[in-house]
Amino acid sequence: MRTHSKNLSDTIVNILIYIFFIAFTLICIFPFYYLFINTISNNDLSSKGLINFIPKGIHFTNYLQVLKIRGLGQAAFITLSRTVIGTALTVFASAFLGFLFTKKEMWGRKFWYRFVIITMYFNAGIMPWYITMMNLKLTNNFLAYVLPSIISPFNIILVKTFIEGIPESLQEAAEIDGAGLYTIFFKIVMPLIKPILATITIFSAVGQWNSFTDTLFLVTDSKLFTLQFVLYKYLNEASSLAALIKNSQSGIAAANIANMQTATSVRMTVSMIVVIPILFVYPYFQRHFVKGVMIGAVKG
User: Fold this and answer.
1) How many domains is the chain partitioned into structurally?
2) pLDDT (tens digit per residue) in 15-32
3) Domain of 125: which CATH number?
4) Where is the ABC transmembrane type-1 domain (predicted)?
């Protein structure tokens, strides 16, 4: 009798857990779904908040209009370049420094490790940062997108902790066989730390892809504008234009323009374009993500 009662209670608990997580998943997915259906629905209905669950008047004009933005191709190339190059450099530097900080024979290991970590807690502020970047000739320079982000204290901590969980006997055996520092790093350590590398790749790639404040402060050359910055500018301009059209009495032509694009349709289309690439990349690294964070965060 007790066994039957226990099995029944376990089943009820499992059902409740499934219901909870299904509901939680739907809550997480719905904002993306809401954005998408509003970008492909009638712009006039969307601007009035009448599109909530089912798209109406389906069209893809919003995406076609956004893709016609002048300089969008160049901006996409700059963003893709900074994401790929910046992420690769950040991951390599984090992996190599994290590895070095585990080597007891490293000169001044504790000092340099603390020197790097302390930058997580102290920030000079925007003006000193801008003056430093200007003195380093990193204004209107593509290197401004990748150099400052190469050293990431948080990523170094994750890699260092992860490596400390690997048996030292592996490295010692390689040293006995005559392997040097770089051989051990590339042939022994790197293959074993793929989960944490995938984790910091996600962190770095998302940060690089979404960043536009460095463009706002450091770049005036339109050839170096990032995708997010161009879309941000267009968003502001489109919002102003939509408001102007709405309040004007210019006639039929203006009304047609307002029906084709509104501030709401532009805002949501821009948001989808920014999010879509990350949504495609993230699942590829998902299988390593949880394992990398858990092992890299807690030793042992």
Assistant:
1) 1
2) 889 999 999 988 888 888
3) 1.10.3720.10
4) 76-285
